[in-house]
């Protein structure tokens, strides 16, 4: 990228000069409190914070801890109830009233990018969207054009200036949103979980853009649930119930796994590894196998062909147009009780496969059999619905009823079960998921994680033998992810056949019996996770990674190799496996030393 | 969770949206128009006697917008959601606007005065009556414009086709609206 | 049940029609559309069909794409044509089978009204296919701006329209995802008794409304963050400017309209 990329190149008169002479604090909050419910709970509680120009701050915290609220206050979108807010050197909220001019002025210098790329894109042409901010600022048309080109080039989306954003991938949309914020030439960029809904490659693209910005001196405040992203920051802040409970360098904050776990977070991989090597930690990434009591269901006992069979399945969308087939020639035989992870980059056909298994589409070619029922068999459709459960991407969006129990009862009622049976199933499932207390509440009043569980309950209440989960953990905080993993593990233990679409290689390593990798609608790998991950390069090529444990084992082997040592760690894919392999190879001390020398950012 | 459907309480206002429409109002109207537009492209022939009379659920969206946000928003949603149709299917577009406005405005006006479940029911019935009259009137005027069918023929169709079809359509709209509007107003945080 | 959002969707291109000022294009196309009502004779019809096809060619949009985008209306037009064929009974009888009678008058009426409607729709489609929703709403705002003096919030309304057009495909995708999810829970709009169908309807609509409100709250945050503060003081990336091309297009439109009307008067006079 050329010299015009630098932050100091400003093509209009507005800029820092009018504020020269003041100190370099861009945001100063003092004793800020904010409530959404007239004081019964505080979304922000006594928050005092200073952000220096040029800092790269990472904000961590569990779901509902107040991160987004803090981001809105910092961006000048929300005025607090108490405390003072100073933005860009001006007092915007003095404890009693908001200064509209100061707020407006501050907003002109602060950019915000948040979780859902869909909501941030306001037009149907990429270039027009990037131009929207500068238009609002009253920038001259010629300059707008220059800024649009510059920012699109910066986020590597120059070729898409005329594209329709709603047809781009989530990662591309998010980069457009960033370009839109940057086109306003902000002094500070606030990113509120920009990668939460993206795949690995999309997230990496955004981190790359952030690295570039931070090098050129833009102040960055980054809210995230991913600890490895926090490692890139100069300063990490942890929120809990609206309070700042930790504030320091990544090294200081992320070193204590037990403390982080108490806050609903998860320590970075190397910290957990160090703990496990010292024998102090439990390892922390093995699923606890929570409750082996399964969802009880009636089984007729009679023999039937069970599991899922895909036989040379092909499928294309009617309006898929030039993109070709969404699935071609996919075959797999999934015996009852297996947990299969379906992986692949965005658009590789994972959700399409999931839909076909659930009889939500019929294959153009080939056959799909679920428990021996052909999905094209309309006569047995209702019977099939009782066999296979489908949890869509972000399933909390399917909730509709007035109460949690009514929503969960919807599926079983449609199956034509008696009222009594429906009630029994609802109670059982709510109990299994720990939702009994919420039965009478409106699903719309719950937190995001709770709503996801309610949606899952609605599917489980149908008593499926085969469960299809489309990215069940996306967008949850580490605690929520862990809870969901435990549930999946328990269902697996109870004999449910599970097909799980996921982007998380660590989840695959921890949970799956088998892994099916798709690329451009074809199966490119099929086998146990250990087998598939041993071909790491191939996975890299199609945009997938390997689990942390395996990556670190390779890292350790490489550094030992430089010292003339061959360790032979094998292919450990979980933390427990890695520790065992290290014990077996007798290289405990070497591993420790490598950990200490490498620091947190070993990748 | 990241996005609460509840409105940002005015007490947290930064004081900038005092003039004109707030961004929240613009965004809410826009999304309701978008839902209504998407719904207006759904076409279900529910009446075998006249396959060209299609049912689309957009009327429900306009009604819910009218009940939850008042008559002005109801009109805005009704008119804007049919606007693109004016270029591709002008007569369908005009009829769509006419039918939606005639249904939404009376219902929203009554509900505004009588903010109870009863009020909503009365409003829906009044709206349905007005809309039925408007649809029949509209058909008598407009059908001869785009086809060789004469006014007399259309009038002859009123009892066997137009009245039953429109009644069926309005009944669906009103019943579904009655079942959803309360939930939506709760989400809006009334 | 897919939602036909392909209906009149912008097709990127660089034809002279694409580059017209959207205001000029919209007004001319409206004029072209209105004058189709004046068509009553075969000569007029021929000119109108030629004019519409000429305009479609000039857009450079593949003919298939144009026809695809108007397919739902074409079916409707066909139905109307058939109605005319059987309901209009003037002139000589060509065919009689029981109560059904096809006459010369019926055939002519069917041809006339079908073609008239098709021409009308093709004109409309060229506008939608060659103009981005943003340009369209810019034109809408600019053309209606005199009404602002009467107290109508023209800027806000066009902003609403433009944002709505942006969200239609997103919501359509969400709608089919929700319908899938509910279908997997055994919900069906097509089967079952009235209460069951009503529940199925609500099970799709409620999540759609909740989704709309969720998007609305995100969108309003995005508008605030990008300093949207109403229409005053805003500049435009694409400045609307009438040029020579627009003048020529307007003249051509006027000439077409004049010829069509003149032919109509000649026809009436004869
Ligand atoms: N409703 C649809 N209409 C047309 N094409 C579609 C539709 N849904 C998906 N596609 C296309 O089919 C292909 C496979 O999509 P699919 O949603 O199965 O991918 P995925 O692997 O689930 O991706 P992601 O990780 O983003 O969820 C993509 O090219 C996508 O653009
Ligand atoms: N508009 C709102 N109305 C009412 N309550 C709200 C609103 N926004 C947030 N809250 C509540 O305030 C608290 C903090 O919410 P916030 O969205 O800031 O959390 P978060 O840390 O960003 O969570 P997440 O990780 O899920 O994005 C939560 O309890 C939430 O339910
Ligand atoms: Mg998917
Ligand atoms: Mg948040």
Word description of this protein:
The complex is a heterotrimer of chains A (603), B (190) and C (270). Chain A has 603 residues and is α/β, with parallel strands linked by helices. In chain A, 37% of the residues lie in helices and 19% in strands. In chain A, the strands form four sheets. A six-stranded mixed β-sheet of chain A has the order 6-7-8-3-9-10, with helices on both faces. In chain A, β14 (365-370) and β15 form a beta hairpin. Chain A is globular and about 70 Å long. With 190 residues, chain B is an all-alpha fold. Chain B has a single domain (23-188), classed as Orthogonal Bundle (Arp2/3 complex 21 kDa subunit ARPC3). The two termini of chain B are 20 Å apart. Chain C has a domain at 8-131 and 243-270. Chain C has helices at residues 16-19, 22-35, 42-59, 63-87, 104-130, 133-148, 154-184, 194-225, 244-269, and strands at 93-97, 100-103. In chain C, a hairpin with a 2-residue loop joins β1 (93-97) and β2. Helices cover 71% and strands 3% of the residues of chain C. Chains in contact: A-B, A-C, B-C. Chains B and C meet through α1, α3, α4 and α7 of B and α4, α5, α7 and α8 of C. The structure holds adenosine-5'-triphosphate (ATP) (2 copies) and magnesium ion (2 copies). One magnesium ion is lined by residues 67-68, 192-193 of chain A.
Low-confidence stretches of chain B: 1-10
Number of helices, counting only DSSP H or I runs of 4 residues or more of chain A? 23
Low-confidence parts of chain A: 1-22, 281-304
Overall 3D shape of chain B = globular
Query: How many domains of chain B, as an integer?
Result: 1
N-to-C series of helices and strands of chain B:
HHHHHHH
**What's the main sheet of chain A like?**
6 strands, mixed
Strand content of chain B: under 5%
Overall structural class of chain A, as computed from helix and strand content, comes to: alpha/beta
Number of helical regions of chain B: 7
What is the typical, i.e. mean, pLDDT of chain B?
84
Fold-level CATH name of chain B: Arp2/3 complex 21 kDa subunit ARPC3
Biggest sheet layout of chain B: none
